[in-house]
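Working notes for the structural subgroup meeting. M.R. asked for a predicted model of this chain before we commit to crystallization trials. I am recording the input and output together here so anyone reviewing the notebook later can reproduce the run.

Input as submitted:
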Amino acid sequence: MSDPLPFLPFALPDIGEDEIAEVVDTLRSGWVTTGPKARRFEQDFTAFLGDAGLHSLAVNSATAGLHLALEALGIGPGDEVVTTTHTFTATAEVVRYLGADVKLVDIDPKTLCIDVDAVETAIGPRTKAVMPVHYAGLAADMPRLLALARRRGLKVVEDAAHALPTTSAGRLVGTLESDATVFSFYANKTITTGEGGMVVTRDAGLAQRMAVMRLHGMSRDAFDRFTAKKPSWYYEIVAPGFKYNLTDIAAALGLHQLKRARAFQRRRAEIAQAFDAGLAGLPVITPPGPGAGDTHAWHLYVLRLADGAPIGRDTLIERLFAAGIGCSVHYIPLHLQPYWRDRYGLVPAAFAHSQRAYERMLSLPIHTRMTDADVERVVAAIRRALS
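Returned structure, recorded in token form:
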């Protein structure tokens, strides 16, 4: 009898020797908090996006980046921000940090990204901003959304936690006309710094406000003060800021992860294509690919059971787990979560597309440490479970 196959995790970071060496160099350098490598990472990120007019600010999480962006845009009590119910709570919770209200809307049933028509319907006199989510690594309909925002005088902050490197109408997410775009480098994202994120904006004033608020509202950050050529102990607190800076240890990982981002994307796309081919003919709905000429980051591969499936989503996950395959669900929509449901009196019927998708969806493992044999194993297990 053959030994059982090892468990295939839902996600695994792909850390190489270059990342390890850079972290060791950081530890030996004496700069373990925000310093020269965090600054290099910001510069490299702007270069990666290919637009010298952008400002990139490294932060300790995408949640922090979203909070900073909304704060810098002046969102506060009495304001309302529109976003999708089909996201992780971080997208919405930062609005509440600022005392503003969230208006949740449904998704497009094909892309699972925010429904632009629903956004337009939701806009009211208190609406100040909209936060689209590039779900699973597929860009939301940004041309329509940006046009709507311009027409209605709304700010746009993109939740691009899944979207490096994703393109919309041929342009990299991060280079569009939004007020700010926020990326995540959490452990399971397309590149990782363990914990971390990046805020990108074209607005120099917005960038300056976020830079100040990122570190306690100080007029100068620690790196500037401690590397000056003359005594520079003096600083001023100009606002009640936050503690959102990225460490050099984390940035050391990011420097080399960023160099591998396009290769990572290509491998994820290969896995997605193999899943599409291997699952053909089953009672499932495979995720939509990108539009012609565009790039999907493939942070997630979200499979949905079709009407003819012989088992439900939960049973399928249980059978895959029994076969040693890790899966997840993205997401339990916010309208089902007690805080959001109770605060705003939300009911599933108001979010029919998100609700239906949630009840039938599971996220398959898709990461760059998977082998072709791992992919075949997942396909075979799904075929057995649905046979």
